[in-house]
Amino acid sequence: MSSVVDTLVEMGFSKQKAEIAVAKTASQDLQVVMDWIISHEDELESLTSSISDSVPVSAPVEVEQPANVSTSENNVEMAPVEGSEEPSPIAKSIRCDDCQKLFKSNEEVEFHAAKSGQSNFSESTEEKKPLTDAEKKEQLAKIEAKLRQRRLEREAREKEEPLLREKNRINNFSESTEEKKPLTDAEKKEQLAKIEAKLRQRRLEREAREKEEALLREKNRIKSGKEMLEAKKRHEELEMKKIIEQRKREKEEERLAKQRVRDQIEQDKLARKAKFSGAASEPPVAPPVTTPAATPRPAVNYTEIRLQIKLPDGSGLTQTFGAKEPLSSVRLFVEMSQKVNETSFSLMRSYPRKIWHLLLCSL
Questions:
Q1: Within a 13 Å sphere around the CA of 205, how many CA atoms are in the beta-carbon half?
Q2: Given 97, 119, 149, which residue is the final one in a domain?
Q3: Could you give the C-alpha distances from 261 to 257, 268, 275, 287, in angstroms and in order?
Q4: Which of 190, 302, 349, 359 is a Cys-bridge partner for 327, taking CB atoms 3.0 to 4.6 Å apart?
Q5: At what angle do helices 15-25 and 106-116 cross, to 10 degrees?
Q6: CB burial class (10 A; 0-12, 13-18, 19+) of residue 339?
Q7: Rounded to an integer, what is the distance from CA 83 to the centroid of its chain?
Q8: Phi, psi of 330 (to 5 degrees)
Q9: pLDDT in tens, the chain (363 residues)
Q10: Which residue range forms the structural domain that includes residue 324?
């Protein structure tokens, strides 16, 4: 990892922001990187917040020190120059003659020149020293102060913008010496007609909306009622099938029991007859009772049904209805026959006993 990134992290900046700043400046000068962070605070925040969608930040470039350059602060290596016996000093940095700042690379020099407008630079044998802990704290305090000042300025500017817009809006009005004239009768009637038209339009819209809502509620109620009736009908059909199967089993058991009794009676008759006749005969063996296999009846889809309706006065009505017609059609038929004086009545089935109050289910 770059030493500049480590230094910025120690000073309190996040690693991500430090890497972005180093990559943007392409410099290993701590002062240059910190100046860029201060001058591009908003851009750095936006890059950090959208780093997942942006182009990955390139890794910071490590600046390798040449092998022939010593890292000692006091020792300066001398390289021999052609045609001269004495070695010439090697430049270890670039100095700004205007502000006396040291830079390690040409990128740092270009950044400083573009920022400050200074153009007087010269090579220097003095090596740029790393910042001490006290200098780091001082630089961090300066950066925090600048960031705080920029934040306060931005907040003040954001507060002033609504006030400025409101002032501009107010300035669009001006006082006038012209007196507002009262409305004439024709203008009053016109304004009143417009207001009444708007009120009528709103009333119609509200009524249409209420009708739609009522229709929707009614549809939902009918749908839920149909679902409940269908579920109830399915349950009743299952119960009816169970009752029919139970009755069939009971009838079969009763028939088998009667057959066994009849066979036993026949055996007793034969035994008594053989006893009185004196003939020695073996007791007859009862033939095995065979139960005929129930042959499945083919399913028949009926389309019509004929009903015989018995009225309270003892008279009857006969009518053919569709198999899928609701019981409300039966009720309507009874009402139209004019033989029932009551306005409200129910339909009842004798066996198995059942009374219908809701007449939405089908026949």
A1: 6
A2: 149
A3: 6, 11, 21, 13
A4: 359
A5: 90
A6: middle
A7: 81
A8: -65, -45
A9: 467 787 777 777 777 877 888 888 887 777 788 778 777 777 777 777 766 454 444 444 443 433 333 333 333 344 444 444 455 667 767 878 888 777 777 777 777 777 777 778 887 777 777 777 787 788 788 888 888 888 898 889 888 888 888 888 777 766 777 888 888 889 889 989 999 999 999 999 999 999 999 999 999 999 999 999 999 999 999 999 999 999 999 999 999 999 999 999 999 999 988 888 875 445 555 555 555 555 666 666 778 888 888 887 878 888 888 878 887 888 888 888 766 665 667 778 777 778 776 554 455
A10: 304-356
309 membership: H or E segment, kind and range: strand 304-310
The letter for the amino acid at 256 is: L
Domain tally for the chain? 2
Residues 6+ away with beta carbon under 8 Å from 287? 263
Q: Burial code of 31-54, b = ≥16 C-beta within 10 A, e = fewer? A: bbbbbbbbebbeebeebeeeeeee
Nearest to 244 by CA among 290, 297, 289: 297
195 falls within a domain: no
How far apart, in whole angstroms, are the C-alpha atoms of residue 3 and residue 130? 10
Dist CA 26 CA 33 (whole Å): 9
123 in a structural domain: yes
pLDDT value at residue 55: 44
Task: Please tell me the predicted confidence (pLDDT) of residue 127.
Answer: 73
Is residue 8, in this structure, part of any structural domain at all? yes
Tell me how far apart the alpha carbons of residues 348 and 355 are, in angstroms, rounded to a whole number.
4
168, 172, 177, 180 alpha-carbon torsion, rounded to 10°:
-130
C-alpha to C-alpha distance for 172 and 304, rounded to whole angstroms: 82
Residue 210 included in any domain? no
Dist. CA 292–CA 346, nearest whole Å: 43
Dist. CA 165–CA 221, nearest whole Å: 54
**Single pTM value for the model:** 0.26
Whether the CB-CB separation of 307 and 319 falls below 8 Å is answered with yes
